[in-house]
Design goal:
Elements lengths: L1 H10 L2 E4 L9 E4 L16 H4 L9 E3 L8
Antiparallel strand pairs: 1-2, 1-3
Protein name: DNA-directed RNA polymerase
Catalytic activity: RNA(n) + a ribonucleoside 5'-triphosphate = RNA(n+1) + diphosphate
EC number: 2.7.7.6
Length: 70
C-alpha cells in the first residue's frame, strides 16, 4: 500500500481542509511527503490560516485524481 500511495501522491497535489471553511485559506493545496504514523504534520506557517492549535483538530485530506477534479 505504501508504494502505491507514494506513486499516487508524487503526481497529484492534495487538498487539506479544516471545517468549517469560512475563508479561502480554509482549504489549501500541498505537495505531500509521506511519513510514518497516522498524523498529519503541518508547517508552522500554515497553522494560523487553519486556526490549528493541536488540541485534537480534525482535517480532511482530498486527493483529486481525475482531470475534471483537478
Amino acid at each position: 500500500v505504501w508504494d502505491i500511495l507514494d506513486e499516487v501522491i508524487r503526481e497529484h497535489p492534495v487538498l487539506l481542509n479544516r471545517a468549517p471553511t469560512l475563508h479561502r485559506l480554509g482549504i489549501q493545496a500541498f505537495e505531500p511527503v509521506l511519513i510514518e504514523g497516522k498524523a498529519i504534520q503541518l508547517h508552522p506557517l500554515v497553522c494560523a490560516a487553519y486556526n490549528a492549535d493541536f488540541d485534537g483538530d480534525q482535517m480532511a485530506v482530498h486527493v483529486p485524481l481525475t482531470l475534471e477534479a483537478q
